[in-house]
Amino acid sequence: MASFASxxxxxxxxxxxxxxxxxxxxxxxVDGANPLLLSAVExxxxxxxxxxxxxxxxxxxxxxxxxxxxxxxxxxxxxxxxVDWDKEMAxxxxxxxxxxGYYKVPFHAYPDGNLSMESALxxxxxxxxxxxxxxxxxxxxxxPEGDEKLRSSYNRCMxxxxxxxxxxxxxxxxxxxxxxxxxxxxLLKAFPGATxxxxxxxxxxxxxxxxxxxxREEETGKKEHLMLLHGxxxxxxxxxxxxxxxxxxxxxxxxxxxxxxxxxxxxARVLKPGGALCVMEMNPASQIFQRVxxxxxxxxxxxxxxxxxxxxxxxxMKTAMMDAGLMEPRQLENxxxxxxxxxxxxx
Length: 347
Prior knowledge:
Blueprint: E1 20-21, H1 35-44, H2 48-68, H3 73-78, H4 85-92, H5 117-130, H6 146-164, E2 172-176, H7 182-190, E3 195-200, H8 203-220, E4 226-230, E5 243-249, H9 257-270, E6 271-282, H10 287-294, H11 296-305, H12 309-314, H13 317-323, E7 330-335, E8 338-344
């Protein structure tokens, strides 16, 4: 999820911490996960009324938390509702792009998932709400800047991991799952002077992203080095060896494992030698994540918003990246519940 929070011109350089080789198995690190709980929730969610009830509860929690921080979902998007979104979507839609079945499921408590203007217009305030507690080790302190801090921490870890592995200089970036462009904007701040191509399957999110980009450019009088495109991440149609860095920020947990593996292979194809695949994701090895996996109520709420969660948890990311032709990845923890992973394409 994303928000259009502001970022400093360059990520601050924190105390340098030691990176580690990426874990060979995420599943092995989810100690104490209750298999009966996981199976029961999976079975219950096959019944639409149960899923609908859980999703409504999850959405209410997101809205309530936002209100505690002074966020107003309704007023923040009211002006955007007046835009001719059919026209905006027609301009971004590529009719030759086929939407896979895994993308046509409910996400984030929206029945139409990412294929709705409602989810696209609310993504800013929703991200601030969802990420309000992520930097607190106990997951209790509400911080309106939590989303910004999370993405800035990814930038810092990414820069450190790129330096440690002697990655090539970064000028051309592919942002996979760019949505409305928040992750792309963060990349522009991390790599001043670079050009970012953001690709996403949702014409709704891209329409909102392009509209907001025009608004920013009109306000500043400056063109952004950003292009948002409708496309399939497994088949970007970009030339081979054409980019220096591929970023996937909070994308893999929204995909079945087969899609993540296919995207890793596509990333390896489009990367120049010495280029890097960078992934920021939830960390199944974190204590907070493990507590959620062991507790019926938090897990049920969480799972109702993330249909492919277990496939992500069960994926061996290290092996998947190396199977795609990349070198052994290294990682850093960039929040109490997130990790940044970087794998280099051999020169």
